[in-house]
Design brief:
There is one protein chain. This protein is of the alpha+beta class. Helices cover about 35% and strands about 20% of the residues. It has a 4-stranded antiparallel β-sheet. The N and C termini lie far apart (about 115 Å). The relative contact order is 0.13.
C-alpha cells in the first residue's frame, strides 16, 4: 500500500505545482483591472478684472453692442467667440466663453492694439471706443 501511496502523493503534488505555476503565468499575462476614478467637479474659475475693464469683462454680446455698436468681426469658434470693435484710436478684441456648459457667453478677456499692431492700454482703448 505504501508503494502505491507515495507515487500517488508525489503525482498529486507535482500536478498541484504545475497548476499554480500556470495560474501565475496567466495572472502575469492578464492586464490589471482598471482603477475606477470619479471626476472631481471644479468650482467655476473666477474672472479676474483688471482696473478699467469692469465695463467689458463679464458682459454678454448685447451689452457690448450697446457700448460699442456693431462689431467689425464676429468670429464663432469651437468653444467661444471673438468680437472685434474698431475705432480711430484702437482695435479692441473681446473674447467670450460660456459661463457654464450651455450658458450664455460672456467676455473673459480683452486685447487692444493700434491698427499697426502696437499694443495699447486696454482700459484706455475701451474708454476711447465708448466716447465715439
Amino acid at each position: 500500500m505504501i508503494k502505491i501511496a507515495i507515487p500517488l502523493t508525489l503525482g498529486t503534488l507535482l500536478l498541484a505545482g504545475s497548476v499554480s505555476a500556470q495560474e501565475a503565468r496567466r495572472a502575469a499575462e492578464r492586464p490589471p483591472a482598471p482603477v475606477e476614478r470619479t471626476a472631481v467637479s471644479l468650482p467655476a474659475r473666477p474672472i479676474v478684472v483688471a482696473r478699467g475693464l469692469e465695463s467689458v469683462i463679464g458682459k454678454d454680446i448685447s451689452a457690448l453692442k450697446r457700448q460699442f455698436g456693431e462689431p467689425r468681426l464676429d468670429v464663432v469658434e469651437v468653444y467661444g467667440r471673438k468680437l472685434q470693435f474698431v475705432g480711430k484710436p484702437c482695435i479692441l478684441d473681446a473674447f467670450l466663453y460660456p459661463e457654464s456648459k450651455g450658458g450664455r457667453e460672456v467676455v473673459t478677456y480683452v486685447d487692444a492694439r493700434r491698427s499697426d499692431g502696437t499694443a495699447v492700454d486696454r482700459a484706455a482703448c475701451i474708454e476711447a471706443l465708448q466716447r465715439r
